Amino acid sequence: MALPAYPAKPKPGDRVAVVSPSAGLPGLFPHVHELGLRRLREEFGLVPVEYPTTRQTRADPRDRARDLTAAFADPTITAVLATVGGDDLITVTPHLDDAVLRANPKPYFGYSDHTNVLNHLYRLGMVAYHGGSVLVHLGRPGAPHPLTFDSLRAALFTSGWYELTPAPEWGDEPGDWRDPSTLAVAPPMRPGEGWRWRGPSTVVEGRTWGGCLEILHWLMAADRVPSAAELAGSVLVVETSNEMPGAQEVFRIMRNMGERGLLAAFPAIVVGRPKAWDFERPLPVPERLAWAAAQRGAITRALAAYHPDPVVVFDVDLGHTDPQLIVPYGGEIVVDAVERRIMVRY
């Protein structure tokens, strides 16, 4: 498989698609969605274009795929931004028109359930972008997080190298979208602890692949992931979702990746900071710390069995916690364990 190619970038004033191929939550939380759209216009100078299913809940997968295909087909659209994640995009991607997507490459931004689309575009030979959503990041309560917006701005408009940096403070307690008044209140944050490095002191350069760990497990079950040979030399980038999978589940997913031969393909692995708080499971801080430590331990245990010597970086701000750094999917990355730096090329 040829290396994925970078699509052309938008510029301020361009029209960009705003789509919901996963969950149609803009229809349930229009106040959050409108805030995100306003910031897209005012902070980035882009013109959002919605599609028929953008605000529809329970839209048919074929209709969502039709909207996504139409966004790529429209020559006036220069990028495609997802509104939010969900849990059934695996039923949408089979209905995409791959010929249209290949003929009209565009930057696609999404994470979580959008791992389905990111992986799909990767297999079509297109670099996409893990991160960014209209509701979660553009519609963040209080004010945009500066690290998220700087990363998103660079990923949208530039093509050079960008250094990811540890967040000086971070959080995993979002506002309650059911209460519009929470949009005025910034989410609580905690001091950052920096990244955690393990493995050899070396520099790894490669192309990224991965995404939300639970979605990768679904994709393996559906046999929609590249082979170990195709991924050889790549850097695995993974994070876990707001459903907060336990350490044993994380170990089993990583173990199954090892059994498939995938883990040994990656000379470096970048792991997102795990989200350890949810409305259904509001853990106190000590339990959150233990939760994150157990997840790191589960990944380390799986690697010990299947691939004991990669460079591993834990607690990078690229997943379901706040802020979120954008990572090119299929794009270039340098993981420097000597200087303890991570660079990506947007």
TrEMBL record:
Keywords: Carboxypeptidase, Hydrolase, Protease
CDD domains: Peptidase_S66_mccF_like (cd07062)
Transmembrane portions of the chain: none
Gene3D superfamilies: Class I glutamine amidotransferase-like, LD-carboxypeptidase A C-terminal domain-like
Ranges for domain LD-carboxypeptidase C-terminal: 205-333
Ranges of residues in domain LD-carboxypeptidase N-terminal: 16-131
GO MF: carboxypeptidase activity
UniProt key word NADP: no
Superkingdom of origin organism: Bacteria
Family: Belongs to the peptidase S66 family.
The name this protein goes by in its record: Muramoyltetrapeptide carboxypeptidase LdcA (Peptidoglycan recycling)
Organism name: Micromonospora matsumotoense
